[in-house]
Amino acid sequence: MNKSLQFEHPVENLTSPLQQSFTLPCGLTIPNRIAKAGMSEQLGDRHGSPTVELEQLYAAWARGGAGLFITGNVMVDHHYFVEPRNAVLESDRFLAAYKLWAKAVHAHGGKIIMQINHPGRVAVLPLLKRPVAPSAVGLDLPAMNIIRVPRAMTEAEILEQIQRFATTAALAVQAGFDGVQVHAAHGYLISQFLSPLANIRTDGWGGSPEKRRRLLIETVRAVRQAIGPNKALSVKLNSADFQKGGLSQQESMDIALALEAEGIDLLEISGGNYESPAQLGYTPGKQTERDAYFLDYAEQLRRQSKMPLMLTGGLRKVDVMNRIVSDGVVDLVGMARPFAMQPNLAKQLFAGQSVNEPPQIPAIGYKPVDAYLQLAWHAAQFRRISSGRDPKPLGGLIRTVLAFGPRMGFNILTQH
Q: Domain coordinates of the chain in residue numbers?
């Protein structure tokens, strides 16, 4: 029998496939099949330490009953931030705060994996410093391909970042996290190396599919060595970039199979990036109009792979979730944005009720800006949940901008 389809308890004793526990190859048992996928909480302090608010947010989510919690971006290098107030873990300086973050989930029976990341060319901070990337190719967005053209990394810098991922991973498990997730999706540094559009190198780190994925493979190997065989090693991978000339679905499939050969414990399937934010439902084509954005890819991969799979993006109907788990298409169902409005979401899904219809989030019709409005809108909900308040709609466009604009400006100016 397919190892990834084995269940801890007999199905007949449970009312929903989503309630079955699942054990990863490393030995970590997840209490059920619902995972909170990573979102950018922006609840670190100005130095990069997790805050009490971050602990309280995760405690509230953990009380809601999901089995696995994947954190938002934790930076491996304090020189480069995705957004201000990201958490950073590169030494034992903030280890006590990280231990409290992990305990906030463990106290309620959940498991927590730290998502570790480097932004590459999409770094927001520092504002006045050129970001780094595989090649000196800017984002294909108005102005960004002029004012934020990155500097191509040297080989020494590439090797340094591999070691930084490993260092952060080792510190994460030292702090009590159940494992780490290497973020190789959504247009961040490792995703940039995988993309033929962002990576035009002709040395050992680009020029062919094998060389483009070298950074990811070597990072995975270094992280595994750092955390050992008994902690979870996950990778978040784009099913495709949804850009002409970008990472294709077939090349992504080849990467996934290469990751299986490396012995990772869990592959999270997502898609898109800053230029084509498929993870938020924005793509040029029709693929993300179905109930689960990247289900076709998961189904194709499952036919070739026994690796544990987590699918994230667009999952809202409980019958779809139950079916793909019971059929063995995926092992975990990941959701992100719904947790911003429904901290107790897992209990509702266990009872057979689908995700609530989300509130209307203001938009201006320009996809990259609308994607950012979505992120900011959800971050405002995280702050409410962390302070013990219920989530609530913010109102129209002006109120939404006022809810995050001044705060974002202050955070940028005061980030250490």
A: 3-357
